[in-house]
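User: I'm new to structure prediction. If I give you an amino acid sequence, what do you actually give back? Let's try with this one:
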Amino acid sequence: MEFGIFIQGYVPEFRRGDPDAEHHALLNDLELAIAADVAGFKYVWVSEHHFLDEYSHLSANDVVLGYLAHATERIHIGSGIFNPLPQVNHPAKVAERVAMLDHLSDGRFEFGTGRGAGSHEILGFLPGEEDLNVTKEIWEETIGEFPKMWLQDTYEGFSGKYWQLPPRKVLPKPWKKPHPPMWYAAGNPPSYAMAARKGLGVLGFSVGSYADLEKVLGSYKSEIVNAEPIGAFVNDNIMVASGFFVAEDTDRAVERAVNARLNYMQSHVFRYHDTFPAPAGIPKWPDVIPDFTADQVKEMAKGGMICGNPDEALAQCREWESTGADQLAFGMGTASHEENLEMIRLMGEYVIPKIDTDPVHRSSRFRDAAAAS
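Assistant: Good question. You get back a string of structure tokens that encode the predicted 3D arrangement of the chain. For your 373 residues, that looks like this:
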């Protein structure tokens, strides 16, 4: 199992006593990505969100990814996600950015896509639209065109329901052949199966526990073996997301998790991701979910959250590995910046070397095999 982090420019209201809170949050995220590179994490995923106050101020992730291409050496930099809906980002420009990032990173770019976070975000680009299901149709119309833009010398062009492009040379072409690995941010089991049939890796941002993964793993792995990839190769990969709070002693780790106010962040998930079913009793924004107690944090550490001393973190990560996860990625930003840096260091010293012993990225193996065939 491999390890990653994801960053999103989290700027909660309770930190805005600092007049430069937004600026510090964005620059701190860059520092965390660089620290993860040094510590041996293999992936950093960079969000793209629009209009989501507090929850995510990281909107121009192509800019951030370009910076990280230069500032890092080994870690793969991924779009988590690039939104390819033509109303948000024209597909030809997305294809150009992907190829450019592949050049700037020496082949370390990972291309993740998705359909956006919910009505507040997406309907900002689709004024007058009421049914968010239309984004599924738009994404389906678009996603298969990217490999053609990269692999055809002159792209044959496209005329669909939602966008058109006459034949053109889409430049540059990706540097490392045949093209970057492709991923999809999936939520429910049918989405996992759909991604598998297309040969896409899955960014499981909505998977936060062993039980969550169990619900979707089978639907993905049973389909991926018969995939008809839309690109040049199958990216057989499931990334799952979790929180992590590691310290030299357990009590300090639990204290960090409590102080992180994870449920304030979760309240924003239900505020903006209105396509996610909210459990009964979840308060409606601006009311927020009560903060976790220490006992609740300890219970969560039994189900998937990484929380404890380095030995406990290692055991918890091994449990994730045994579930079949290909990559475990940690959301950053809820703890203090100093705590985040220390936790990345502890994972790099005590956990990652004992689990991820392969020097080659899993996605690179698929890409390299396709280039050699």
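You can read the tokens as a compact description of the fold. Here is one thing that stands out. The domain at 2-246+305-372 is CATH 3.20.20.30 (TIM Barrel).
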